[in-house]
């Protein structure tokens, strides 16, 4: 009511409230009989256990044969069925195709989550991180649950490492089984959620999951990147080919001098690659992270893109096929403000503040969207007719396919399509961005290994 008017007409401003919908397509075992792929988008319903009237909050992609999303109430929802090795059961927590809440041992709301090939990681509203899946992807911390009963309980099975880094001959953690067939603590680390041990006061804002490594971006120390897992190709940005990092470590992305004295100690584990390039990386902190199969990418607040890790197909965008062991600025994109980045198994796609799309790396299935199948070792601006007058806002990559959502909500996909993961109604690969026919306008898309969600 307007307090300065007496009588007369009263106007009420109504805001349209739109329910957030989730769709899936591609390969999700159990979603259709005979494990048939979903060739076109299918609406995903919230589980009945979630309060009536609730909605979806975010989608988190998926791994091999499973999918994840977050409900408006902060519950992590997973679905998908097991493959022959049982990995989807380990990561999604169930065999059925019906979405259900994942049993995380916390009442705190989940705000972010990500899935690698066969491991998952989530962030709570309190900045805590839980991870589960393949043992080699799970760092030291508290494991919750009894592998023999499935009952959630807290079990501190790992001693605090004296060093951040643990060198191992094999990247796979060696668990053991007792003679009576029970699972040892080392084995239980993979199948059960693990609360990642962080430095005191450290709060994580978002996470990214790669093939066998994880990156996390903290909020408590203004955009510091942390990493753990396998780093044999430099994907953890330590400046070396260390095989396994068993605890979160700081990844030196920005010159420590730009942060003052309190940052110099945190970044002492590595040196800036920009020193060798003769210039300082633009920006004061990292605002975005992405993990590919064996490489990583970060974006600074100034819009600079840095890459590191496996470079065999040019996926680091440095004009060569060399591995990058430390975060290295993609110099050919300097002067272009990068707003979003995603990484696949062999390729990388990023979008600029102007809505342009750039791609580089492997292109065996057309995943770069250039209209050809040649790899690109430098970022290539996509000029496909389908993207003309399109302002890209969101980008995502699967192992061998890519997607962007435009400012107007239109979705474009391209790359490998053996399992219908492009959502185009067939199984034909595309080497240029193709619009997906969907009845609603989208705001976010995340891609799993062979599925899109």
UniProtKB/TrEMBL annotation:
Entry keyword set: Repeat
Start and stop residues of the RCC repeats: 74-126, 223-302, 303-354, 355-408, 409-453
SUPFAM superfamilies per record: RCC1/BLIP-II
Ranges where the RCC1-like domain occurs: 175-437
Highest taxon listed in the record's lineage: Eukaryota
Pfam families, sorted: RCC1_2, WD40_RLD
Gene3D superfamilies: Regulator of chromosome condensation 1/beta-lactamase-inhibitor protein II
Protein name as catalogued: RCC1-like domain-containing protein
Organism annotation: Nyssa sinensis
Taxonomy of the source species: Eukaryota, Viridiplantae, Streptophyta, Embryophyta, Tracheophyta
